[in-house]
């Protein structure tokens, strides 16, 4: 099962019922290799080691790993002796999965939706362990397929938003935009097409992209290794810059808009994203360049009031001191390596989701609420969105991680 729109060489996730493989993104762009994911334990390690990365891709991987484990190791439910045994196993396994990386909310979002699917199935009159497991596998597959549909919808909304904001500031080249992005938010970070990079793809498809700029995104180099790979693959006009060159590029007048992804958008619109995003939002504000977030509603976390509540993942020293196993920093120095930082809501022009743009209130903050995640909201609800409603909010409350 591969959502259409993700070319095979850019397919981060390969799935059919009972089989899950991940493109090992640590080897890109030098080597294309897929790793099997036999169960949730393997998925936990591959997410932590960033074999797969990118908030939506992490959520999809976690959901599909649960599905594969139930199908191949639990006999699609026949191994459980009761409905309670099945739901208890599913819930505890999903809780373990969420501990692999704390900042991106998508993994917790996927876990909560699969728990909701299990709870709904378990409450049915003729519930059996197999019917509960089947509901969870269906929910996991729906989560995967819905992600690419979300990205396509976001692309269209985002392209219109960037054009309007840039033109309102008298920016653009013959109506076309020069757009700067950070990290990797494309097919390699999602089920396909991408979030912020999906907006850039949509501009290109509409003939309104003048040029794309991507930052290298130290220390994991998602930009230099992954986004540059995607832009070259799609033959988009693109230039790679060092992270430290972003403000100078803006000062040179070559940037009409900035669009980045997200790992967690909280209630007031503060947004956690790859380290360096805060700097970009401050520089964009200084140069009066519109700064947008593109994120599916699976990345919204209305339970946290503001960005200072977001857990920021700290990663290894070696990510900074070494590159592909070769030491590039002096011995004996300490390292501080937060993997994310928070763009303040006041510097964000708009939050682009598959349900449209989340508007800013008059006092310069956003009101991200669970209603963006539940029924309605402009896009035909898939299975999972119909599962996520106020009851689920009450029952599962604040997310883990
Ligand atoms: C659409 S991907 C969102 C987000 O995830 C990336 O982080 P990582 O590569 O560490 O998983 C980056 O922050 C992207 O913007």
Automatic annotation (TrEMBL):
Site, as annotated: Transition state stabilizer: 183
Annotated GO CC locations: cytoplasm; nucleus
Metabolic or biological pathway: Amino-acid biosynthesis; L-methionine biosynthesis via salvage pathway; L-methionine from S-methyl-5-thio-alpha-D-ribose 1-phosphate: step 1/6
Domain of life of the native organism: Eukaryota
Listed GO MF terms: S-methyl-5-thioribose-1-phosphate isomerase activity; translation initiation factor activity
Record bears the keyword Cytoplasm: yes
Reaction(s) catalysed by this chain's protein: 5-(methylsulfanyl)-alpha-D-ribose 1-phosphate = 5-(methylsulfanyl)-D-ribulose 1-phosphate
Enzyme class, first EC level, given as a word: isomerase
GO biological process: L-methionine salvage from methylthioadenosine
Chief place of localization: cytoplasm
Gene3D superfamilies: translation initiation factor eif-2b, domain 1 (1.20.120.420), Translation initiation factor eif-2b, domain 2 (3.40.50.10470)
Locations listed in the record: Cytoplasm; Nucleus
PANTHER family the UniProt entry points to: METHYLTHIORIBOSE-1-PHOSPHATE ISOMERASE
Family: Belongs to the eIF-2B alpha/beta/delta subunits family. MtnA subfamily.
Protein name: Methylthioribose-1-phosphate isomerase
Organism of derivation: Volvox carteri f. nagariensis
Taxonomic lineage: Eukaryota, Viridiplantae, Chlorophyta, core chlorophytes, Chlorophyceae
């Amino acid at each position: 099962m591969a959502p259409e729109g993700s070319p095979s060489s850019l397919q981060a996730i390969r799935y059919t019922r009972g089989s899950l493989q991940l493109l090992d993104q640590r080897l890109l762009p030098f080597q294309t290799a897929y790793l099997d994911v036999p169960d949730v334990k393997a998925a936990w390690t591959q997410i932590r080691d960033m074999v797969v990365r990118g908030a939506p891709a992490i959520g999809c991987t976690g959901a599909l790993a649960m599905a594969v484990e139930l199908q191949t190791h639990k006999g699609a439910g026949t191994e459980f002796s009761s409905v309670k045994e099945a739901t208890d196993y599913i819930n505890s396994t999903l809780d373990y999965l969420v501990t692999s990386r704390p900042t991106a909310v998508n993994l917790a979002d996927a876990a909560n939706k699969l728990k909701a699917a299990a709870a709904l199935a378990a409450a049915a009159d003729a519930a059996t362990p197999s019917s509960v497991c089947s509901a969870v596998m269906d929910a996991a597959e729906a989560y995967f397929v819905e992600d690419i549909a979300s990205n396509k919808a976001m692309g269209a909304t985002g392209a219109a938003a960037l054009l309007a904001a840039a033109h309102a500031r008298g920016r653009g080249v013959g109506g076309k935009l020069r757009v700067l992005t950070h990290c990797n938010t494309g097919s390699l970070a999602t089920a396909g097409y991408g979030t912020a990079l999906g907006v850039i793809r949509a501009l290109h498809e509409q003939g309104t992209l003048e040029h794309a700029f991507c930052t290298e995104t130290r220390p994991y180099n998602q930009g230099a290794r992954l986004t540059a790979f995607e832009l070259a693959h799609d033959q988009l006009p693109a230039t790679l810059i060092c992270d430290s060159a972003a403000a100078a590029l803006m000062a040179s007048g070559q940037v009409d808009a900035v669009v980045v992804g997200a790992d967690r958008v909280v209630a007031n619109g503060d947004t956690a994203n790859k380290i360096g995003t805060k700097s970009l939002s401050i520089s964009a504000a200084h140069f009066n360049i519109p700064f947008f977030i593109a994120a599916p509603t699976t990345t919204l976390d209305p339970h946290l009031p503001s960005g200072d509540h977001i857990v920021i993942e700290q990663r290894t020293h070696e990510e900074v001191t070494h590159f592909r196993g070769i030491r590039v920093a002096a011995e004996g120095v300490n390292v501080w390596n937060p993997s994310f930082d928070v763009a303040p809501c006041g510097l964000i022009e708009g939050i682009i989701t598959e349900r449209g743009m989340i508007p800013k209130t008059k006092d310069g903050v956003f009101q991200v609420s669970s209603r963006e995640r539940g029924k309605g909201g402009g896009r035909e609800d898939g299975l999972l969105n119909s599962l996520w409603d106020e009851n689920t909010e009450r029952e599962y409350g604040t997310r883990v991680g």
